[in-house]
Amino acid sequence: MFFQKKKRLLAKPDFDNLPQHIGFIMDGNGRWAKRRGLPRSAGHRAGAKTFRDMVRYCKDIGIKNMTVYAFSTENWKRPKEEVEAIMDLLRSYLKDAFDHREEEVRCLILGDTAPLAPDIVALIKKLEDESRDCKQMTLNIALNYGGRAEITHAVRELAGQVQRGELAPGEITEDTISAHLYTAGQPDPDLIIRPSGEYRTSNFLLWQSAYSELVFMDVLWPDFTRRDLDRAILEYQNRDRRFGGV
Ligand code: IPE
Ligand code: IPE
Ligand code: MG
């Protein structure tokens, strides 16, 4: 019994059969800081380190699409200082991320960037433009993102096309809707990981996660390691995905 458990703990995922697209709900930064008697901003700083390491690891093992939930449409409810601390971390990430060009990582922001500070909007645009042709991995950063807001945005665009006579209502299909989401052209996530012990997806990739495998883990995001990702992938590889078939 003990041996079996140990064997499972030591098992490695099959790196030749990886999920194409992994989503990460980066949660638990605040609790991580609280346990250490630190301000919540220290938790976000530690979480940002984990994020950087995960980008590198995912790219190195050959994940093709990675999406991280960095800031939700609901996170504006938090104290102003906390929102500012998160935006500052984002600023420094976006500046450093120009290095991604060498690493062949294409970066995209999922969400409405209009309410963000103008310098952040400019950094995003620069990064998206300059990494456009990078081929190794696509990194989506969900920022001021909400699944419902994303679908609402897509519906508005389609309604505009119908109003202008460019599209008939009967021509709207699941594919047309997918093509108007922020993730247009990318495969749906195969695996979504939520650390921090919460069992919900909090408005993350609502449409795209219809058939995603969900893995919930107890570890807090700042403590999340490469080994934790291996474990999540292993769990994913042991699932039986049926997509409604038999
Ligand atoms: C996730 O960590 C980061 C963001 C939502 C920006 P939290 O800040 O939600 O951490 P907990 O859930 O309070 O521990
Ligand atoms: C989800 O975490 C959003 C991000 C990780 C950015 P939250 O901490 O905001 O989610 P809830 O409030 O626990 O559902
Ligand atoms: Mg949280």
UniProtKB/TrEMBL annotation:
GO biological process, one term: polyprenol biosynthetic process
InterPro entries recorded: UPP_synth-like (IPR001441), UPP_synth-like_CS (IPR018520), UPP_synth-like_sf (IPR036424)
Superkingdom of the source species: Bacteria
Keyword hit for Transferase: yes
The species this protein was found in: Bittarella massiliensis
Cofactor mode of binding and number, as noted: Binds 2 magnesium ions per subunit.
Pfam name, any one: Prenyltransf
Binding, substrate: 28-32, 40, 44, 72-74, 76, 78, 194, 200-202
Protein name: Isoprenyl transferase
MF annotations from Gene Ontology: ditrans,polycis-polyprenyl diphosphate synthase [(2E,6E)-farnesyl diphosphate specific] activity; magnesium ion binding
Assembly, per entry: Homodimer.
Family indicated by similarity: Belongs to the UPP synthase family.
